[in-house]
Each structure stands twice: as C-alpha cells, then as structure tokens.
Amino acid sequence: MSRRQIQAVQDEEKMTRVRELAKTHCITEVEKLTGISRKRLVSLAEEHEITFPEGRGRAHLARYEVHAAKLRAYLAIGLTRREAIKASELDPRIFKKVCQQFEIQFPETR
C-alpha cells in the first residue's frame, strides 16, 4: 500500500470513530478522546454533515431565565440599559445574551 492509501484508511477509521462519538459526546469531549483539534473537528463536521450535542447542558438556560425575570422587572420600572446592567450586576456579555434570547430591549436613554 502506498502512503496515501494508508493515510486514507486511517482517515476513514478516524471519521468512523468521530461519527460514533458525535452521537453521545459534545465536540470538546470528542476532541479529548480522538486527539483531533477542535478546529479540524468543526471542518470535518461541516464536510461530513456531523452534528454534536450541546456541551454545556441546559444549566445555563435556567440561570438565564432567572436573569430574564429580573431584567423584565427592571424594564417595567423604567431603567435604561446601562442602569439595568449596573443593577443586575451581570457581565455585559451575559446581559446581551439574555436580552437577545428573551427579546428584551432596554432604552438607551430616558
């Protein structure tokens, strides 16, 4: 067998393993188990139409719901975006994610 043929067989074996792992493991776990970089796994997944389950679980969504309830209350009393960020003590990036996910729009000024 030539080098290319050997490499092709090895690549096919890796893809078979990645497909099997992708059914039950997130991309980070597959990266650790196979030794293939995350960037390469993403490109392979696009090429071969492989999907990975979400890795963080659903714990952050429950927290986001609590944050959204607080933010809706701040919106109801008339706080601006900046005041709501300060009052909620959320990181601005998390504040933005929660507002986008739950479609909450704060006014910039009064």
The count of β-strands is 0
Average pLDDT number: 90
What is the total domain count? 2
Q: Biggest sheet, in brief?
A: none
- Tally of helical runs: 6
Q: What overall form do the CA principal axes indicate?
A: rod-shaped
Residues in helix, %: 55-70%
Spans of 5+ residues with little confidence (pLDDT < 50)? none
Radius of gyration: 22 Å
- Measured between the Cα atoms of the first and last residue, the distance is 74 Å
Instruction: Quote the beta fraction.
Output: under 5%
Q: Note the run of SSEs as H and E.
A: HHHHHH
Quick structural overview:
The protein contains six helices and no strands. It has 110 residues and is mainly alpha-helical.
Describe this entry's structure for a reader.
The protein is mostly helical and about 110 residues long. It is built from 6 helices and no strands. It has 2 domains: about 5-50; about 60-100. It has helices spanning about 5-20, 25-35, 40-50, 60-75, 80-90, 90-100. The radius of gyration is 22 Å and the shape is rod-shaped.
